[in-house]
Amino acid sequence: MKKKSFQKMMAAALAASMALSLTACGGGGAETTADVSTTQEPAQDNTAAETPAASEKEEAKEEAKEEAPKERVDVTFMTIDFNAGTSNTGDYAEEILGQVEDAANVNLDIEWVLTDVLEEKITLAMTNPATMPMVITHSGSLTGEIVSAAKAGAFVDLNDYIWDAEKYPNLSQMNKSVAESLTVDGALIAIPRTRDIGRYGLSYRQDWAEAVGITEEPKTIDDIYDMMYKFTYEDPDGNGVDDTYGMEMTSYTGPFDIIQTWFGVGNGWAEVDGKLVPVHMQPEYKEALDWIKKAYDDGLMPKDWAVRTTDTWSNGCKTGESGIYIDVMDGGRRIWDYFVATDTYTKSVVNPDEPAAMNLLGAVNNKTLATSGYNGYFTLSASTCDTPEKVEAVLTLLDKLNDNDVRLLVEYGIEGVNWEKDADGNLVDLDVEDPTLAANYMGLNQMLAYLPRYDLDPSPAKNERTQAQADVYVENEQYAVFNPASAKLANSATYADIGKTLDEIITQARTQYICGEIDEAGLQAAWDNWLSQGGQAIIDEVNAQ
Fold it and tell me: CB of 330 within 8 A of CB of 275?
């Protein structure tokens, strides 16, 4: 839909909203006047006491006002269905949804949308402002289409509501840096689906390290290279065959972004001499790139990594092909789970009586990549959340969902049906024995903002692996490198239009340089192309803010 026609529809919706608001304000004023006139004392001796009967009536009147239940608000909610149409279905589904509605005092109408058509459905919804769902769950980060819609007034500015800690004790704890990245022209247009900031880092086979004589955790970039080399050439699995690599790698290039931070490279963008620039313009970027290229040339990662599909990601470590995994720490933990959980567990190469283990190291050289702090977000439609009462009803719902008991309900279901406590007070998931029970609440977690992040009470018992993951998340936070331009990129018209295409120029050139398909001159040519095709305009727009 063209922006102009959208603005016309939004203007009509907003005009109707203003008319309703004016009527409501007028009614409120009349009621206030009436209340004052009936309670105002006549002009008489100020020492005259109010009669007990009158006082009791007024107190009763005030108590009645306080105790009168608020009328339920109907809330329409478009959210993601990862469960092929089985989300919130089954014998207890209605009961679970009813408890959520009771907690927030709303009537909830959920539109479930399969993930592969989500963007199409959202676009279609935005072309009809009058029927747009009041709240929508989006995946990923802000797109150009959403930014354009925000500029046209499609979404509620949450700044006027969200920071009220009394009304929204959970949502008001939103990270301010994350909130900034969801701000368009000064308006906070979304609530993030929060994720751990310190999620990225390095994991490695602990038993392989011991087998090649590495007894201490690596601390420096040189230590990592030494480990990668030994994992490749010193037969860490002891089978006498040259069949191992140091580092797992597929066509997903996220690990390179993490490695770059070890050298002092920023997260997408960095501040250099008081100016924000994309990281490929940092001197440290080329230093990191040459290190990765050397690792490739020395055979420390698979030669065919650039064409390995991402669905094989982590298989190298699981099958004993490689010993280092650089990505999310929970990915390293899942590899460790695999070692332990298989029927005939993956044996440690130094002690066959024990399973193999991963060391979740995290940061290297006191640096690692920060996540954006969220993955997906919620927007409130300005055309259907057209009164403060409706906005507050939606925000109350999103806030209440993050209360311990409600979150427990939508993540694990009903106590005694879906879960129970063990003797130590830990949560035991009964759905493991009867997976069909999980359908009762499945999918409802797509409405969770996870604000604030905390462990549920009760929670499943932590084992050595999950505790190690939790510990490294906390440790990583102090070393995590943020993107200082994330909010500004959302407000760059050029980036909204062609930013993803320009990003691909840099990513592709990096891959080609590592694999030897282009030399330094070719790399520089790609960077120059990035500038001329719109990169300079993005730099200018970002710094103008």
Answer: no
Task: Write out pLDDT tens, residues 4-55.
Answer: 444 444 444 433 343 333 333 333 333 333 333 333 333 333 333 344 455 5
What pLDDT sits at residue 313? Answer: 83
Q: Go through the chain and tell me how many residues it has.
A: 545
pLDDT band at residue 537 under the 50/70/90 scheme:
very high
Residues 115-124 pLDDT 10s: 889 999 999 9
Strand partners, 361: none
Please give the DSSP secondary-structure letter assigned to residue 312. G
Please provide residue 538's backbone torsions phi and psi, each rounded to the nearest 5 degrees: -65, -45
Strand bridging mode 269-272 / 73-81: unpaired
Per the listing, tokens 């009936």 go with 38
Residue 495 DSSP SS3: helix
How many C-alpha atoms does 428 have within 13 Å on its Cβ side?
10
Q: Where are the beta strands (DSSP E) in 152-243?
A: 183-184, 187-188, 191-194, 200-205
- Whether pTM exceeds 0.85: no
SS3 per-residue string spanning 123-143:
HHHHCCHHHCCCEEEECCCCC
The answer to whether 227 and 220 have CB atoms below 8 angstroms apart is: no
- Please provide the DSSP assignment of 197-245 as one string: TT-EEEEEEHHHHHHTT--S---SHHHHHHHHHHHHHS-TT-SSSS--E
Q: What's the CA gap between 58 and 249, in Å, rounded?
A: 74
Q: Using DSSP, state whether 246 is helix, strand or coil.
A: strand
Sequence-distant (≥ 6) Cβ neighbours of residue 474 within 8 angstroms: 198
Cα-to-chain-centroid distance, residue 73: 28
Is the pLDDT at 204 greater than 90? The verdict is yes
Distance CA 434, CA 440 (A): 12
- The kind and range of the H/E element at 376 are strand 374-380
- Checking if the pLDDT of 444 tops 50, the result is yes
Q: What is the mean pLDDT of residues 90-107?
A: 97
For the stretch 246-280, pLDDT in tens is: 999 999 999 999 999 999 999 999 999 999 999 99
Cβ proximity of 543 and 275 under 8 Å: yes
Mark 128-153 as b/e (b = at least 16 C-beta within 10 Å). ebeebbbbbbbeebbbbebbbbbbbb
Burial classification of residue 41, based on how many CB atoms lie within 10 Å of its CB (0-12 exposed, 13-18 middle, 19 or more buried): exposed
pLDDT of residue 491: 81
Half-sphere exposure of 304 (CA within 13 A, CB side): 6
